[in-house]
Amino acid sequence: MLLLCSDGLSSPALLEAARPHVAGKRTAALVVTADDQYKERNWHVPRCTAELEALGLAVTPFDLDARPAGDLLAFDVVEFIGGNPFYLLHALRRADAREVLMTLARERLLIGWSAAAFVFGPTLELVNRYSPELNTLGLTDLTAMALTDAQVLPHYSRFLTRFEGFEATCAAYERETGREVIRLDDGEGIMINEIGGRFLISFSCPQKMG
Protein backbone atom coordinates (compact mmCIF):
# COMPACT_ATOMS: atom_id res chain seq x y z
CA MET A 1 0.00 0.00 0.00
CA LEU A 2 1.23 3.49 -0.85
CA LEU A 3 0.29 6.48 1.30
CA LEU A 4 1.12 9.95 0.01
CA CYS A 5 0.54 12.73 2.51
CA SER A 6 1.34 16.34 3.18
CA ASP A 7 3.25 16.27 6.46
CA GLY A 8 3.40 12.73 7.78
CA LEU A 9 0.83 10.86 9.87
CA SER A 10 -0.08 14.15 11.50
CA SER A 11 -3.82 13.70 12.03
CA PRO A 12 -6.02 11.10 13.74
CA ALA A 13 -7.57 10.33 10.34
CA LEU A 14 -4.19 9.42 8.86
CA LEU A 15 -3.16 7.34 11.86
CA GLU A 16 -6.42 5.41 11.74
CA ALA A 17 -6.11 4.89 7.97
CA ALA A 18 -2.62 3.44 8.45
CA ARG A 19 -3.49 1.27 11.44
CA PRO A 20 -5.10 -1.68 9.57
CA HIS A 21 -2.03 -1.90 7.34
CA VAL A 22 0.38 -2.19 10.27
CA ALA A 23 -1.58 -4.71 12.32
CA GLY A 24 0.86 -7.35 13.51
CA LYS A 25 3.82 -5.40 12.11
CA ARG A 26 6.78 -4.58 14.30
CA THR A 27 9.41 -2.44 12.56
CA ALA A 28 9.56 0.81 10.63
CA ALA A 29 12.32 2.65 8.80
CA LEU A 30 12.18 6.44 8.80
CA VAL A 31 14.11 7.51 5.70
CA VAL A 32 15.77 10.89 6.19
CA THR A 33 17.65 11.15 2.88
CA ALA A 34 15.56 14.03 1.49
CA ASP A 35 17.09 16.36 4.07
CA ASP A 36 20.61 16.32 2.69
CA GLN A 37 21.83 18.70 5.39
CA TYR A 38 20.37 17.58 8.72
CA LYS A 39 19.40 13.96 8.03
CA GLU A 40 18.18 12.32 11.28
CA ARG A 41 18.58 15.68 13.06
CA ASN A 42 15.71 17.05 10.95
CA TRP A 43 13.25 18.64 13.34
CA HIS A 44 10.36 16.49 12.06
CA VAL A 45 12.10 13.24 13.00
CA PRO A 46 10.99 13.13 16.68
CA ARG A 47 7.37 13.80 15.68
CA CYS A 48 7.37 11.22 12.89
CA THR A 49 9.02 8.69 15.18
CA ALA A 50 6.32 9.26 17.80
CA GLU A 51 3.58 8.84 15.18
CA LEU A 52 4.98 5.50 14.04
CA GLU A 53 5.52 4.39 17.63
CA ALA A 54 1.86 5.19 18.33
CA LEU A 55 1.10 2.43 15.80
CA GLY A 56 3.19 -0.01 17.82
CA LEU A 57 6.27 0.12 15.59
CA ALA A 58 9.94 0.18 16.57
CA VAL A 59 11.50 2.94 14.48
CA THR A 60 14.99 3.06 12.93
CA PRO A 61 16.33 6.16 11.12
CA PHE A 62 17.58 5.21 7.65
CA ASP A 63 19.68 7.10 5.10
CA LEU A 64 20.07 5.94 1.51
CA ASP A 65 23.30 7.90 1.33
CA ALA A 66 24.77 5.47 3.87
CA ARG A 67 22.92 2.17 3.31
CA PRO A 68 21.77 0.23 0.23
CA ALA A 69 18.13 0.47 -0.78
CA GLY A 70 17.70 -3.28 -0.40
CA ASP A 71 18.10 -2.95 3.36
CA LEU A 72 14.65 -1.33 3.43
CA LEU A 73 13.11 -4.73 2.71
CA ALA A 74 13.98 -5.76 6.26
CA PHE A 75 11.29 -3.39 7.60
CA ASP A 76 7.51 -3.82 7.77
CA VAL A 77 6.76 -0.13 7.21
CA VAL A 78 8.87 2.52 5.48
CA GLU A 79 8.26 6.27 5.75
CA PHE A 80 10.15 8.92 3.79
CA ILE A 81 10.25 12.39 5.36
CA GLY A 82 10.26 15.67 3.44
CA GLY A 83 13.17 17.81 2.33
CA ASN A 84 14.57 18.54 -1.12
CA PRO A 85 12.66 16.55 -3.78
CA PHE A 86 15.41 16.97 -6.36
CA TYR A 87 18.06 15.62 -4.02
CA LEU A 88 15.81 12.72 -3.00
CA LEU A 89 15.17 11.81 -6.63
CA HIS A 90 18.92 11.90 -7.30
CA ALA A 91 19.62 9.70 -4.28
CA LEU A 92 16.96 7.15 -5.25
CA ARG A 93 18.29 6.94 -8.79
CA ARG A 94 21.85 6.51 -7.53
CA ALA A 95 20.66 3.75 -5.19
CA ASP A 96 18.73 2.06 -8.03
CA ALA A 97 15.84 2.00 -5.59
CA ARG A 98 12.72 1.89 -7.76
CA GLU A 99 12.20 -1.88 -7.65
CA VAL A 100 12.64 -1.85 -3.87
CA LEU A 101 10.06 0.93 -3.58
CA MET A 102 7.65 -0.94 -5.84
CA THR A 103 8.00 -4.02 -3.66
CA LEU A 104 7.37 -2.01 -0.51
CA ALA A 105 4.29 -0.35 -2.01
CA ARG A 106 2.96 -3.69 -3.22
CA GLU A 107 3.66 -5.88 -0.19
CA ARG A 108 3.92 -3.54 2.80
CA LEU A 109 3.11 0.06 3.72
CA LEU A 110 5.20 2.77 2.05
CA ILE A 111 4.58 6.34 3.24
CA GLY A 112 5.92 9.44 1.52
CA TRP A 113 5.19 13.01 2.47
CA SER A 114 6.05 16.47 1.17
CA ALA A 115 9.17 16.02 -1.02
CA ALA A 116 8.70 12.24 -1.10
CA ALA A 117 5.07 12.60 -2.16
CA PHE A 118 6.31 14.47 -5.24
CA VAL A 119 9.09 11.97 -5.91
CA PHE A 120 6.86 8.89 -5.64
CA GLY A 121 4.60 10.37 -8.31
CA PRO A 122 5.26 10.70 -12.05
CA THR A 123 7.29 13.90 -12.30
CA LEU A 124 8.84 16.87 -10.49
CA GLU A 125 7.66 19.30 -13.15
CA LEU A 126 5.13 20.98 -10.85
CA VAL A 127 7.47 21.51 -7.90
CA ASN A 128 10.04 22.82 -10.40
CA ARG A 129 7.60 25.57 -11.35
CA TYR A 130 7.34 26.65 -7.74
CA SER A 131 10.90 26.18 -6.48
CA PRO A 132 13.44 25.70 -9.29
CA GLU A 133 16.14 26.96 -6.93
CA LEU A 134 15.93 23.66 -5.05
CA ASN A 135 17.36 21.91 -8.10
CA THR A 136 20.93 22.52 -6.99
CA LEU A 137 22.08 19.34 -8.76
CA GLY A 138 20.94 20.68 -12.12
CA LEU A 139 18.71 17.71 -12.92
CA THR A 140 17.33 17.99 -16.44
CA ASP A 141 15.28 14.79 -16.44
CA LEU A 142 12.49 15.45 -13.95
CA THR A 143 10.84 12.05 -14.38
CA ALA A 144 10.17 10.79 -10.86
CA MET A 145 9.81 7.26 -9.44
CA ALA A 146 6.29 6.85 -10.91
CA LEU A 147 5.08 4.45 -8.24
CA THR A 148 1.66 5.87 -9.09
CA ASP A 149 0.24 8.21 -11.72
CA ALA A 150 -1.40 10.22 -8.95
CA GLN A 151 0.16 13.65 -8.61
CA VAL A 152 -0.24 15.52 -5.33
CA LEU A 153 0.45 19.04 -4.13
CA PRO A 154 1.19 18.99 -0.37
CA HIS A 155 0.82 21.88 2.10
CA TYR A 156 -1.81 23.44 -0.17
CA SER A 157 -3.62 25.87 2.17
CA ARG A 158 -0.40 26.81 3.96
CA PHE A 159 1.38 27.65 0.72
CA LEU A 160 -1.50 29.65 -0.78
CA THR A 161 -0.24 32.69 1.10
CA ARG A 162 3.46 31.85 0.84
CA PHE A 163 3.70 31.71 -2.95
CA GLU A 164 2.26 34.45 -5.14
CA GLY A 165 -0.14 32.95 -7.65
CA PHE A 166 0.12 29.52 -6.02
CA GLU A 167 -3.25 28.20 -7.22
CA ALA A 168 -2.91 29.90 -10.60
CA THR A 169 0.38 28.09 -11.17
CA CYS A 170 -1.18 24.75 -10.31
CA ALA A 171 -4.23 25.36 -12.50
CA ALA A 172 -2.02 26.41 -15.43
CA TYR A 173 0.04 23.24 -14.99
CA GLU A 174 -3.12 21.13 -15.12
CA ARG A 175 -4.33 22.86 -18.29
CA GLU A 176 -0.98 22.61 -20.05
CA THR A 177 -0.20 18.99 -19.15
CA GLY A 178 -3.65 17.44 -18.89
CA ARG A 179 -2.71 16.06 -15.47
CA GLU A 180 -4.98 16.25 -12.43
CA VAL A 181 -3.27 17.53 -9.29
CA ILE A 182 -4.65 16.38 -5.94
CA ARG A 183 -4.30 19.28 -3.51
CA LEU A 184 -3.54 18.13 0.03
CA ASP A 185 -3.61 20.15 3.22
CA ASP A 186 -1.44 19.23 6.19
CA GLY A 187 -3.11 16.33 7.98
CA GLU A 188 -4.47 14.88 4.74
CA GLY A 189 -3.30 12.10 2.46
CA ILE A 190 -4.19 9.73 -0.32
CA MET A 191 -4.01 5.95 0.02
CA ILE A 192 -3.31 4.05 -3.20
CA ASN A 193 -3.74 0.30 -3.43
CA GLU A 194 -1.98 -2.05 -5.81
CA ILE A 195 -4.69 -1.92 -8.44
CA GLY A 196 -4.75 1.86 -8.52
CA GLY A 197 -7.72 2.58 -6.28
CA ARG A 198 -7.40 5.92 -4.50
CA PHE A 199 -8.84 6.89 -1.14
CA LEU A 200 -8.61 10.47 0.05
CA ILE A 201 -7.95 10.70 3.79
CA SER A 202 -9.06 13.99 5.28
CA PHE A 203 -9.53 15.38 8.77
CA SER A 204 -13.02 13.90 8.93
CA CYS A 205 -13.09 10.48 7.29
CA PRO A 206 -11.73 8.60 4.26
CA GLN A 207 -13.54 9.25 0.99
CA LYS A 208 -13.18 7.00 -2.02
CA MET A 209 -11.86 8.86 -5.06
CA GLY A 210 -11.87 6.05 -7.62
Q: Spans with pLDDT under 50 lasting ≥5 residues? A: 204-210
How much helical structure, as a percent, in the residues? 25-40%
The largest sheet, given as strand count, sense and whether it forms a barrel, is: 8 strands, mixed
Report the β-strand fraction as a percent range.
15-25%
In the CATH classification, which architecture applies? 3-Layer(aba) Sandwich
CATH fold group: Rossmann fold
Could you say which structural class the secondary elements and strand pairing correspond to? alpha/beta
Q: What is the mean pLDDT? A: 93
Distance from first to last alpha carbon: 15 Å
What do we call the CATH homologous superfamily? Class I glutamine amidotransferase (GATase) domain
Q: How many beta-strand runs?
A: 10
- Output the CATH class name: Alpha Beta
Question: Order of helices and strands, N to C?
Answer: EHEHEEHHEHHEHHEEEE
**Helix count from the secondary structure assignment:** 8
Overall structural domain count: 1
- Computed over alpha carbons, the radius of gyration is 16 Å
Large-scale geometry: globular
